[in-house]
Amino acid sequence: MRFSFSLELERKVITFEVERIYRSRYIERFKVSPIGLKAFLVVQSDRPTIELRKLSKPIQWFKVEGYITDPHILQLIYQEIEQAFNAPPPAFQGTLNL
């Protein structure tokens, strides 16, 4: 799965591209990279475990790799990823040939 989102950080709008790079029954990892820069961030969540066991606890996020250390920016990134998974799928725009 791949998607992008924009955040306003320090009066600049930065667009991030997110790609799921690993998923198991227990964890999933995402590579988050600002478009136009070579830097990237790898974050991990326990969302598959929560869905598998049908738990009602919040998703736990961990920074696996990367140079972003500001907890506020990390929290904004985590929220954007969660919103992408909670959003309804886009409506089908094609035609059906039966």
Largest sheet strand order: 1-2-3-4-5
Indicate the mean pLDDT. 89
Quaternary organization: single chain
Characterize the overall form: globular
The helical percent reads 10-25%
The tally of domains stands at 1
C-alpha Rg, in Å?
15 Å
Strand content: 35-45%
Structural class of the helix and strand makeup?
A: alpha+beta
Q: Report on the biggest sheet.
A: 5 strands, antiparallel
What order do the helices and strands follow? EEEEHEH
Residue ranges: pLDDT <50 for 5 or more in a row?
none
What does this structure look like?
With 98 residues, the protein is an alpha+beta fold. The chain has one domain (2-86). Helix content is 23%, strand content 38%. It is built from 2 helices and 5 strands, in the order ββββαβα. It has helices at residues 47-53, 71-86, and strands spanning 2-9, 12-23, 28-34, 41-45, 61-65. The chain has a 5-stranded antiparallel beta sheet with strand order 1-2-3-4-5, covered by helices on one side. It is globular. The two termini are 29 Å apart. The model has no long low-confidence stretch (mean pLDDT 89).
Summary keywords:
single chain, alpha+beta, five-stranded antiparallel beta sheet, 23% helix
Produce the secondary structure layout.
Layout: E1 2-9, E2 12-23, E3 28-34, E4 41-45, H1 47-53, E5 61-65, H2 71-86
Antiparallel strand pairs: 1-2, 2-3, 3-4, 4-5
